[in-house]
Amino acid sequence: MSPLTEDDGAQVARPSESRRDPSWLRERLDTWLKSHEGPGAQVTAVDIPSANGMSSETLLVSARVDGADHDLVARVAPMPDSDPVFGSYDLDGQYRLIRHVAEHTDVPVPRLWWSEPDPAPLGAPFFVMSRVDGDVPPDVMPYTFGSWVSEGTPEQQRRLMTESVGVLAKIHAAPLPSVGVPVVEPGEDPLRSHVRRLREFYRWASEGRAGAPLIERGFAWVDEHMPEPSEPVLCWGDARIGNIMYRDFTPVAVLDWEMATLGPRELDVAWMIFIHRFFQDITELAGMAGLPDFLTRDDVAAEYKRQTGHPPADLDFYTLYAALIHAVVMYRIQCRAIHFGQADEPADPDDMIMHRASVEAMMAGTYWSSVAERGES
Ligand SMILES: Nc1ncnc2c1ncn2[C@@H]1O[C@H](COP(=O)(O)OP(=O)(O)O)[C@@H](O)[C@H]1O
Ligand SMILES: [Mg+2]
């Protein structure tokens, strides 16, 4: 799920109150677990972490299976009546994709336990994985505002960058999966297919309301500047350091596979670069220095080339496209917040996009030169 969304009232917007009740969840999961693993199995505790994304829910589960205690995490699809951010979820597809990655690469992913596609037991499909011990760069407040990442030494921050780029390199070398990624229409280039799906998502999100002119100009820019098709790879999708757990600045678990797709490798490389810029820009606007030398476009691109032999191409295009994807998701989240009475409708719909100035500067071709002028490229 995208950054800076966790705090804007997701709980209030979730009508399915029983899903917020740990004892209800523990009972339901316990019944479910016994039916799978026999009467000796037991769910001993369920906790709902406070900082949750808005796409799926993450539950901390403790269970006894075959006489051993396990710390687990259940990822549960959103309830349809909660007006989910995305129209459809394929949680079992995510589970199978993670298994594909575990089988074919040495990308660290949590050990998988079960997938339950039937909504009956919990009200929505879910899967269960092992709980990994590690730290995630925080989104709220962003890690650039002050966190274990910003407190690291330059050497540790560099290790985090090279190892995180290494995660992308390994994912991109995986064989193409047949599960957990959207189907590309026969004869359609995967990038064009990705843009088509984003546009469909935007149309769905903006149906019956004022659209955002900036997003529409963004789509037109993307159509005009579309790069030549390239060989598709497995892309992680939400490829940002905020979806990786680290120990000692080294990845120990790669999470959040719901945006996975087949497409050009630059989709992931540019998303990693852009989301850091997004946080860095907010930090500078707040009058702080942030991490201007961390995860820079030049460093990420050079490191990706060093590890894969592929120099990322067309990064002006792909970073703008990343900013557009983020704009569409942010627009959708804001529409949802307005719908639930948690936000006021702005007079200018483009104001729903927190990074509108960056998108405008990218389209004008001035964004990266101004970053360079600040010595941050
Ligand atoms: N297997 C896991 N082990 C430990 N913590 C996890 C695990 N999966 C998720 N988490 C915690 O839940 C948070 C959200 O998980 P994530 O998969 O990124 O979902 P989303 O961002 O869609 O809510 C993570 O940042 C992490 O703190
Ligand atoms: Mg996440």
From TrEMBL:
<protein>
    <submittedName>
        <fullName>Phosphotransferase family protein</fullName>
    </submittedName>
</protein>
<dbReference type="InterPro" id="IPR041726">
    <property type="entry name" value="ACAD10_11_N"/>
</dbReference>
<feature type="region of interest" description="Disordered">
    <location>
        <begin position="1"/>
        <end position="23"/>
    </location>
</feature>
<dbReference type="InterPro" id="IPR051678">
    <property type="entry name" value="AGP_Transferase"/>
</dbReference>
<dbReference type="InterPro" id="IPR011009">
    <property type="entry name" value="Kinase-like_dom_sf"/>
</dbReference>
<feature type="domain" description="Aminoglycoside phosphotransferase">
    <location>
        <begin position="90"/>
        <end position="280"/>
    </location>
</feature>
<dbReference type="Pfam" id="PF01636">
    <property type="entry name" value="APH"/>
</dbReference>
<dbReference type="InterPro" id="IPR002575">
    <property type="entry name" value="Aminoglycoside_PTrfase"/>
</dbReference>
